[in-house]
């Protein structure tokens, strides 16, 4: 019976494909799955209520013609729709829309009055009645592009809104981003077919979230010419939706986003507190995901910390993979600077590169900004870049960073307090007084700076991050168990209070 329903539906698709455009066929008929054939009634499964309603409104005649040709005058069509309960603890249920036997015509396609995607977004509620109707389908309406309101939607000419300079080739990999980059590359190579759907990338400002997700989009565009990739910020998405409400064009807005094969939504936290926009995105997300389309998102925090988003949205964000981006370590910062130099044809001495990588350790964006400032100063002053020039030119920038993250001050203060030299603090010696000073300095470096454990270890004579962990734990234990040592730490802490 399963084979029969597949055969019948395959034959129906051939009939339908001959009468509609290729893109419309891929969007509205390829996602349909035949379920069963019984007593001349073909049951098909569609991804959503909105999908069903769109078929009935625009393609009912094509469906009637195909069913009549395959099953004869008594042929009927039923739809199966997965209905979401809005509860992560419950499984979605399947709603079967019954055949209307009294309706005229060879294939009675029933109409379901449950709220459409667009209406649901506007009202936030659903009606649960069903009404029988078979009316001639009007020609598909002229739909407007929310990115260019003066233009109609022509899928082959739609812009992806991507910045072509963001690629995997110039996205430097390091410990801080390895998981996210690897997952992004997997998605770019096989969009919609991996378990990373959706892919959520989160991290602080300037860590490369936008670069990574746009690199995914650019890679897909270069290798899958038939895929429509769309990048949009959550703010832009919200503003478009508000404009569609104002101009009574919500259906156009929804239809546009349902054409997308790969949707990249940047800064999803912007949807917080915007209930109607979340409702719209929820339905678009469901439709695209069920149709095997790829969804990629970014956020400034993990899903569990996103406040003001509906639980049903948050649960969907966790369906795929969530990967974080962290501040780049010293080696990665060095590689970023060198890559930027190569791209821009800049020649900077190695000691200057190392100075920049040591001094600016907050995020990639600030690091690149410092490099641009340095090159600008060099050009304006017609002077070759050297270490002294770099320190002078970037004094105000570096001072801001050092005032906030001053590891040198911590090392010097601890060395002086314990009566050891700064060189010994960074040396390999295991003398007790030096080890204590070094461990305390590492403890305060972890407490008062944003350096990673690996970076702290590097500043203490190239030690491993595990040494830093051991030092921090040792000092913490001594604070709890040794009253005299606790007083020592309290005295030193006062010296760092103003930093």
TrEMBL record:
ATP binds at residues 206, 208-210. The keyword DNA-binding applies. Its main location: cytoplasm. Plays an essential role in the initiation and regulation of chromosomal replication. ATP-DnaA binds to the origin of replication (oriC) to initiate formation of the DNA replication initiation complex once per cell cycle. Binds the DnaA box (a 9 base pair repeat at the origin) and separates the double-stranded (ds)DNA. Forms a right-handed helical filament on oriC DNA; dsDNA binds to the exterior of the filament while single-stranded (ss)DNA is stabiized in the filament's interior. Belongs to the DnaA family. Domain I is involved in oligomerization and binding regulators, domain II is flexibile and of varying length in different bacteria, domain III forms the AAA+ region, while domain IV binds dsDNA. This is Chromosomal replication initiator protein DnaA. It comes from Hymenobacter sublimis. The gene is dnaA.
């Amino acid at each position: 019976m399963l084979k029969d329903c597949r055969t019948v539906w395959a034959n129906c698709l051939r009939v339908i494909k001959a009468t509609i455009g290729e893109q419309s066929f891929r969007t509205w008929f390829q996602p349909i799955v035949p379920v069963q054939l019984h007593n001349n009634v073909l049951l098909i499964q569609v991804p959503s209520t909105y999908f069903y309603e769109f078929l009935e409104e625009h393609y009912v005649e094509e469906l009637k013609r195909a069913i009549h040709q395959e099953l004869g005058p008594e042929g009927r069509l039923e739809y199966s729709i997965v209905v979401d309960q809005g509860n992560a603890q419950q499984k979605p249920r399947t709603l079967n829309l019954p055949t209307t036997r009294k309706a005229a015509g060879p294939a009675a396609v029933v109409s379901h009055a449950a709220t459409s995607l667009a209406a649901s977004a506007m009202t936030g509620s659903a009606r649960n009645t069903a009404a029988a109707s078979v009316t001639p389908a009007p020609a598909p309406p002229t739909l407007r592009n929310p990115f260019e309101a003066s233009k109609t939607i022509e899928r082959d000419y739609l812009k992806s809104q991507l910045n072509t300079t963001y690629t995997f080739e110039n996205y430097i990999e390091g410990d801080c981003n390895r998981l996210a980059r690897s997952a992004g590359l997997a998605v770019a190579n096989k969009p919609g077919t991996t378990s990373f759907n959706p892919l959520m990338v989160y991290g602080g400002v300037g860590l490369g979230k936008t670069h990574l997700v746009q690199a995914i989009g650019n890679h897909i565009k270069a290798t899958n010419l038939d895929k429509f990739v769309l990048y949009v910020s959550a703010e832009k998405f919200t503003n478009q939706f508000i404009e569609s409400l104002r101009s009574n064009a919500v259906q156009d807005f929804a239809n546009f986003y349902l054409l997308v094969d790969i949707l990249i939504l940047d800064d999803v936290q912007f949807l917080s507190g915007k209930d109607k926009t979340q409702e719209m995105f929820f339905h678009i997300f469901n439709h695209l995901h069920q149709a095997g389309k790829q969804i990629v998102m970014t956020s400034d925090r993990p899903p569990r910390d996103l406040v003001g988003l509906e639980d049903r949205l948050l649960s969907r964000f966790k369906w795929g993979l969530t990967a974080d981006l962290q501040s780049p370590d010293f080696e990665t910062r060095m590689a970023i600077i060198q890559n930027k130099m190569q791209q821009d044809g800049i020649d900077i001495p190695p000691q200057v590169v190392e100075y920049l990588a040591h001094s600016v350790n907050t995020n990639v964006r600030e690091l690149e900004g410092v490099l641009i400032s340095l090159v600008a100063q060099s050009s304006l002053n017609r002077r070759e870049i050297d270490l002294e020039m770099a320190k002078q030119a970037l004094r105000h920038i570096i001072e801001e960073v050092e005032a906030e993250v001053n590891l040198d001050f911590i090392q010097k203060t601890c060395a002086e307090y314990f009566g050891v030299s700064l060189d010994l603090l960074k040396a390999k010696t295991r003398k007790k007084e030096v080890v204590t000073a070094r461990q305390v300095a590492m403890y305060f470096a972890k407490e008062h700076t944003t350096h990673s454990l690996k970076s702290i270890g590097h500043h203490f004579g190239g030690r491993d991050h595990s040494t830093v962990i051991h030092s921090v734990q040792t000092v913490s234990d001594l604070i709890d168990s040794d009253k005299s040592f606790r007083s020592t730490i309290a005295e030193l802490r006062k010296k760092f209070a103003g930093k």
